[in-house]
Amino acid sequence: MEVDCSGLEVLTEEEARRLLASTSLGRLALNVGALPVVVPVAYQMSAAGIILRAGEGTTVEGATRGTVVGFEADDIDPGTGEGWTVTVTGVATHLGPGEVPEEAALLPRANGWSGRAETRVVCISVEILAGRRCHGRANANGNGRLKG
Q: 3-state DSSP call for residue 99?
């Protein structure tokens, strides 16, 4: 098991991909007007990458046309400090009708945060993948939160 300088377990690519596929809520990091923005998104993993929906005219739709974005998903228990985080850097592209993978059918068609219809399908390629696992209080401060 590889451990980083913070004492966190470094995940293999296979494990990081498995964990990404185990959940469906993540955070998309993108630039809007040259400023960083992070938005929660529902997603599904596919062989092509991370699949999500975007509403026409929304921040996500406008900022994901062939641009480099960041993505993060995690599952961390606040009480014990145990959990994992996986980050991805990749290119976000809009998919046409013939390009949409089956996994997109599992995505909600309305944004739970805004209630807006999400008609566009976006795929984020997995160019850079990194994952870490925290094994609990050994990597946490006194209140269960991760050090850092």
A: helix
Tokens for 30, please give them.
């993108």
Q: Using CA atoms, how far apart are residues 52 and 43, in angstroms rounded to an integer?
A: 5
Give the separation between CA 47 and CA 33, rounded to whole angstroms.
31
- CB-CB contact of 146 with 139 (8 Å): yes
Q: Which structure tokens are listed for 115?
A: 């209630």
Q: 57-93 pLDDT, tens per residue?
A: 888 888 788 899 999 999 999 888 899 999 999 999 9
> Which candidate, 83, 89, 88, places its Cα nearest to that of 8?
83
pLDDT tens, 11-69?
999 999 999 999 999 999 999 888 999 999 999 999 999 999 888 888 888 878 889 99
Helix, coil or strand: residue 103 = helix
> How far is it, in rounded angstroms, from Cα 57 to Cα 60?
8
Report residue 148 as tokens.
Answer: 């850092």
Tell me how crowded residue 118 is: count the other CB atoms within 10 A of its CB: 22
Q: Identify whether the C-beta of residue 16 lies closer than 8 Å to the C-beta of residue 141.
A: no
- The pTM assigned to this predicted structure is 0.83
